[in-house]
Structures are given as C-alpha cells and as structure tokens.
Amino acid sequence: MLIFVMLKKHIMQFLKSTKLYSIFTGKCPVCHKGEMYLEKNPYKISKLMEMHDHCSHCGKKFKIEPSFFFGAMYVSYGVGVAISVATFIISYFIIGIDRNYSFLAIILTLAILFPLIIRISRNIWINIFVDFDEKAAK
Length: 138
Ligand SMILES: [Zn+2]
Description:
By secondary structure, this protein is an all-alpha fold.
C-alpha cells in the first residue's frame, strides 16, 4: 500500500503544472492549488456535483457561464466509450471471458466508475477552456 502512495506522489509531482494534474486531482485549472469540489471523495453521491463557486487560492470562477458544465456530458460520453472499449478488450481478449459476460463486465465497470467519470469529464471540460497560470499558482 505504501508503494502505491509513494508512486502516486511521484506521478503527481511529475504531472504538476500540466492539465493532467488538474484533471486527475480535481484542483483549480488555473493555479492547481484550490479544490473545485466541496467533497473530495466522488463516491459521496449526494455531494458529487457540488462545486465551489470560486477558487479559494486564485479566485477563478469555475462556472464560467450559465450551464457551463452541461458540455461535460459530451466529454463523459467519450470517456465512457473509452472505458467500455478498454473493459471489453481486457475481459474478452486478455482474460478470455465469454462475449455476453464481457458486456456484463462493461455495464458493471461503468456503474462502479460513474462518479469518477462524471468528475473526470467536468475536469477535462474546464481544462479545455482554462489554462494553467504560473503567476496565479504563487
Ligand atoms: Zn485557483
């Protein structure tokens, strides 16, 4: 377990100041310091969508325009398809499960990962429009 914590720390250090850092951590896309979500854990479903209005560090407004995160649905479609294809390849070709059970595996994977897919999609969506600013990070 400790090795995973250390590995994660090193990977995040490597990704710092890239868009991937903000996408995977849910931090502000401008400064990478403030949290975007009220609840860090996406599996607390009742708080899944609740976000701060502004970044606590740099003051960036997250909801850039009304219904801004509506567009994240398009991203979540793409993320969902990518996860489905990956699940099918792993279960059918690598593990060798029957085709019908592979589709069951896809459904289960999407059901289990849906809070993460929603969060990642929102993070990708805001990172399309907002860039990292080194000055704001200080
Ligand atoms: Zn910020």
